[in-house]
Amino acid sequence: MKSIFKNKKTVSFLASGRGSNFSATARKIFEKEINAKLGILICDKPDAKALSVAKEEFKMNSYFVDPKSYLSKSEHEEEMVRLLKEVKTDLVVTAGYMRILSPSFVKEFKNRIINIHPALLPSFPGLSAQKQALDYGVKITGCTSHFIDDGVDTGPIIMQSVIRIYDNDLLSDVSARILAEEHKILSESVKLFCEDKLRIVGRSVIIR
Ligand code: GRF
User: Catalytic site residues?
Assistant: First the structure.
C-alpha cells in the first residue's frame, strides 16, 4: 500500500519578529495536522521571539543570520540558501520576514516560497498594510497568502480571507482580526502545498 508519509516535504521558515504566523504553521506540522517535516528557521534579527519558540517548542534548528556581517545582500542570501538546502528544504515560508528577497534567491526556490500579507492584494502592498487600509477608509480588508515572485507582494495568490472594518475600529482591532485570519490561511496554504494540491497557471493558483 502506498504510504501517505512517503515524499514528505520539508518546510523551512524566514521570520523577523514575534513569529506568530511561524508558530501557528509550525505547530500544525509538529502536531502532524500538516503532513510535512519541519526544516529550519532563519531570522535576520537576534532578538526575534521566533528563534526561541523554534528551539523550545518545536525542537527546530534556528539561525540568526546577521545581514550586517556580510559584505552584500547576495552574500547574506547565499548563506541562507546554503542553510536551507542543507536540510533539503522543499518549501520556504516567509512569515513576517521584513526583507525583500532578491530575484536570485527567488530563482533558487522558484514557485516554492509562500508569503503572508496583511491586506487583500493587490490593494495595499508593502509595509503597514493594515494602516494603509484603515487610513484609506475601506469597509473590508483582510489578508492574502501568495507565492513570491520578483516583485513586492505581486506573486500568484493562493488564498484570501476578508474581515469587516467597523466605524470605531482602532488599528490594533483591525490588525488583531486580520492576524487571526493570517494564521488560518497561511497554514492552510502550506498544507495544500504539502499535499501537492496547488498548481500555478499564469497568475492564478488552482487548488485541486
Ligand atoms: C504579519 O501581520 C504579517 O502579515 C506581516 O508581518 C506580521 C508578522 O507577524 N508581514 P508575526 O511575526 O507572524 O506575528
Answer: 117
- pLDDT digit string, tens, across residues 171-206: 999 999 999 999 999 999 999 999 999 999 999 999
Atom of ligand 1 nearest to the CA of 19: 12
Reading across the β-sheet that carries 140-147, which strands appear in turn? 61-64, 36-43, 9-15, 91-94, 113-117, 140-147, 157-164, 204-207, 198-201
Report the atom number in ligand 1 closest to the C-alpha of 49. 12
**Ligand 1 center–CA 17 separation, angstroms:** 8
User: What are the boundaries of each domain within the chain?
Assistant: 9-207
What tens digit of pLDDT does each residue of 74-126 get? 999 999 999 999 999 999 999 999 999 999 999 999 999 999 999 999 999 99
Closest protein CA for atom 1 of ligand 1 = 96
CATH 3.40.50.170: does it fit domain 9-207? Answer: yes
